[in-house]
């Protein structure tokens, strides 16, 4: 949930009428439905469209690659380790544990000499739609208004990629902390990690080495030939693997039948009375839709919310994480992170860019009064190794508070009952099918490596 960052004049009068308890805005179920219909129409909210269609061979190739540790330098971590089908397509950690780690989910621990990944592993639901124009918390992959793409690869990005999800899949394998590993690492077989020895700026060589490694397995060579019949084997690149992974993610993790979706399609009985009250707060008094509006429930923009800083920090700013500013070099973007989407949000904890909040209610309450939430932040709900990374120097706190938009400086009052209603509505954004993903995990992968 975000509060108003940019005003929405069309809702000004309607929002004013809802500054009293929700029941006073409409005592009957029909009144609440009518009020909610007016609110969502003002924010251009529509049911999620049908799932994009992908070739079955491409999807199956992507599924195997997604679960195969062969894509990591040390052959010890896969995409699924941090985006697991049993864990809401995340990892249940505030900030992730990358290569060298042991275990899965909340039980995963750092390997000796390793560093936590700087940010929370986001859920990956519904990412295949053309509506998506940005990826990553700092939006470093973006589809610009002029039709071009911005990525960390610049001119090294190979041709043939057409969607930001495909481009996103190119980069975790290049991150030392996430999947690539270090210069002196050896893999699970005791062999030198050739990916770790590549200079950090040479993305092309990393991707070339990876596709060579993958195609060395006969089953993968055969599956790539079937998924890309018009591409000669010598012309296959890691971009083809990324396209397959993106196709799998879009096919497997798109869900369009949450109670709220059914309500949007006209089934007025799909949501409970409490969820509807919460929806009226979300689109009205709570002003959450200023940032979480539209069909995707995100404006895909970066905002500063004074989220507590935990984790090792990122890049040159470490132990701080300055967010979008590290990409744009614009001080206006300091500590700003992209608005996350909210589909299936009730089982994708922890929340915020660094997983600072372990419950949905705590994340909601932060938005009501970011200043008080930051100044009174309690690390007791965090895992010990994460809690000790909390950054709260006077200088940092001062700089963070200076970036908070004026509209968020005045606390918003919601009663406990209203917060409860709002959290129940957020639960109505979950498609029950998103909780049943165990069948996606393959028993084995072509590399023969263990599957998380």
| Overall 3D shape | globular
CATH superfamily of the largest domain: Cytochrome c-like domain
Cα-to-Cα separation, first versus last residue: 32 Å
Query: How many E strands?
Result: 5
Query: What's the story with the biggest beta sheet?
Result: 3 strands, antiparallel
Please give the order of strands in the largest beta sheet. Answer: 1-2-3
- Corresponding CATH architecture of the largest domain: Orthogonal Bundle
Q: Report the structural category.
A: mainly alpha
- Reading the helices and strands in chain order gives HHHHHEEEHHHHHHHHEHEHHHHH
Q: What do we call the CATH topology of the largest domain?
A: Cytochrome Bc1 Complex, Chain D, domain 2
Oligomer: single chain
In what range is the share of β-strand residues?
under 5%
Count of alpha and pi helical runs: 19
Q: Which residue ranges are poorly predicted, with pLDDT under 50 across at least 5 consecutive positions?
A: 4-26
Query: Percent of residues in helical segments?
Result: 25-40%
**What is Rg?**
22 Å
Attribute tags:
452 residues; three-stranded antiparallel beta sheet; 2 domains; mainly alpha; two-stranded antiparallel ribbon
Question: What are the SSEs and their pairings?
Answer:
Blueprint: H1 12-17, H2 22-25, H3 29-42, H4 56-67, H5 79-82, E1 134-135, E2 141-143, E3 149-150, H6 164-168, H7 176-180, H8 203-215, H9 218-227, H10 238-252, H11 259-264, H12 273-283, H13 289-292, E4 302-304, H14 325-328, E5 336-338, H15 360-368, H16 370-375, H17 384-387, H18 394-403, H19 416-427
